[in-house]
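Render this sequence as a predicted structure.
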Amino acid sequence: MNYKYLYIVFLLVITSHVYSQKRITDTIYVNNLLDSCKLILKKNNDSVVILAKKALEISGNLNFTNGKINSYYYLAESNQFSGNYNESKAFYLQALEICQDNNLNKKKEIYNRLGWLCVLMSDYGAAVSYADKVIDNPVSTESDKAIAYNTKASAFTYIGNNKTALELYFLALKIHENQNYEKGIGYTYNNIAAIYFNQKDYENAYIYFKKTEKILIQVKDFYQISSIKNNIGAIFLRTKQYDSAQIYFDKALEHAIALENTTEHARIESNLGLLFIEKKQLDFAVPHLNEALRLYQKLGNKTGLSISYLVYGTYFSKTGNFKKAIEYAKLAFNEAVTSESKNEEAEALRNLAEYSAKLGLTSDAYNYLTKYQTLSDSLLNSELLQTTENMRMVYETEKHENQIAILSANEKIKDSEIYRKKIIIYVLSFAFVIIAILGVILFIFNRNIKQAYTKLVEKNIEELKINSEQKFEKKALTEKELTEKELLISENLEKILEEEKIYTNENLNLDDLAKLLNTNRAILSKIINQKYNCNFNSFINQYRVKEVCKLLNQNKHENLTIEGIAKSVGFANRATFNSSFKKFVGVTPSFYIASLTK
């Protein structure tokens, strides 16, 4: 027997076993990395990229197909949530490329993600195509199809086909309701609300947005909360309820920045710019318009760019610079045409007609107006086409006897027309008398209420002047949880704020303050949270508001505007100042100032 060959075989078996064990270990490691990506997605996208790239490297060495697919998938997801849409799409396509034909489950998942990404990128034709791939996929579940219906409907919404969009949304809603999938129901409610918003049916839009907000809070899906609050703010903006709009936009912006939701951040900045334009506070509008444009350019979102340029055009028209307004309206039109965003295209044409007329460019104004009317008619006709067809079919299938009955009923209506008109005249006369009486009663009632309210406000303002100082002295009952060193830091903190008034520096941040106190941001943040029961920004803004109250009570505000007062104590903008003052004092700055002059 040849022991030499037996020894070689033995070594090969041992080597193969060791290699297979190492491969299994490495495969488990890859899966653990990808599970970590799933856990921290949306929370720390930079870390997701690092983990996914490591998983991709190991999967490549192992030729581990599923590992490579999922690594590309999470790289795409993290880039999408960070607003890097082009990079995200490239990673999705790489994942799709190495999916085997028999891996239909993963394919339809990627198709669904690609479809929504294309909506965000204003590539609506591609979005519909990817959604159809999911709908036609034999392994797609009803839930998968519901997501695809939502994506497809969103694309139709942006290209102006609201009727088809609504039909698809209600298909998705029916599936989610049958499966009792609350998050899906919430998302679909949001999309339906957007249709009503586009049709200027703000009452129904508000109802559906509030339904969405309630559901998302219940399921703790805070990533989309900024979108909902932004949408509700937009309703208040359109209905000229500016204070309510400001409150919702500020809350939405806080959520969007905290969760790095770049798309929503851009929309909110654009809406804030429009809000300040509507309020004729043009200087406050510019920073928001610039930031919105920057974010939309980063995202490559052509519909967003079109909207941003439209708002810029509105801004320049308010300043009387109609040449510049026309320039931006043309930019908006070009982006809308490229992205097939019919609603924005129509608005751009309408604005071009208006701005041209202001400059006396009659011929241009007429041409733009003609194009606008043609496009508006086509949008209207596309929505009424199916309804008209249904009416025609009903008409053609009516039996002859029914037609005769209708004609007979019409004759009876004509005979009773004179009698009906007399009744209407009597009713209107009686209603006029009742309205007049009610008007007098309401006038007296409102006058009495106004007098009582005025006295109540004066009393509240006096109490506010006395007690406003106390609002800034409230502390949480958690000082016993702080160490002696931390209590000493808190004493130094109060001393440096009260004596040196460093809070008047609008660029002051947690790191700078920690350095001044010879500590680090973690300890300082803990002290502020536990002793004062608030975060850093709220803590500093309390001192700023307190300083404003002192200035106002000492009559040092007479030569300053509200913006000047806000700047002098460290507020970067009037919006933050107003919301902080209202939060800590209970009334708006202008109301407080007015009370001091009485």
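Summary. The radius of gyration is 32 Å. The chain has 27 helices and no strands.
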